[in-house]
Predict the structure.
Amino acid sequence: MSLREWSIDGIFTLTVDNASSNLTTIKFLQRATKDWNGTVLGNEYMHMRCCAHILNLIVGEGLKEIDASVAKVREAVRYVKSSPNRSQIFRSFMETLGMESKSLLSQDVPTRWNSTYIMLEITEKFEKVFLRMDFEDDSNSSYFRTKEDSGGLGSSCMTDFQNCREFVTFLRLFYNAMKKFSSSLYVISNAFYNEIFVIQERISNLVKFQNTLLKSTTTNMQTKFEKYWGEGEKINPLLYVAVVLDPQKKLRILKFSFSEVYGNAVAEVMVDKVKDLLYKLYNFYTSIHSPNVQEQSGRVRTELESDASDPYVMVVIHM
């Protein structure tokens, strides 16, 4: 096995996307490496779902509902960018309307939602320019002159721009979270729940929104969210441990977040599960290290239990 050749004697976690072949691989590795010296808690927590991949799935579900409006805006951008003359006309209308921007229209790659977000965010700034260009453009070949609507943009396309404008504000949460999850220059495991909590709260609020499109869109996204991250129990609890070990967060933030989303009763249960895992990790550590460390184990547990109501309690595991 290549792991042996590289002198790797244990796998703590393995982050993969949700392909069925990856699940099969995880199960095989859990069995094959269970008795290795570096194995932690019998590989029980090895499987780590890729947060970035789950975000892609959630956003993809939301884009399905708004796809027609996005397609309309995409075609408008393509129409302007496909001709140097149209691009110049577009810039002249910007000047006429007194608009200044260093941002240029960006054409997205439909299979990459983050590029779609960038396209929509930039296009939002130029909505008035598109409307003015439609009003002034007498070309029969104009994108705005469709077979279905020979009268130009009209109220239909204005609705498309409005739909995208409302959705892009919501999509910004996912875009910012994706940038953090994809970062490689600093540790992000302790920051993941900040992003998930904000997204979950926002989805829950928009599901109750009066806007029919946003309500339908976020309802589908909520279903996908619940499939992978629902009720807090579908997330690898080691990520919660990372949050607790962050001096800026600790159990206080975790308990607050659980309470806001699931209520106090569920929050108490979830916090207790995280504490139990902290005990298990600490006991595992003391079992393989010096007696001096082992003597501290009982004291740490006692302090945790005596301060169970203190949201600032944190266990520090010296590795």
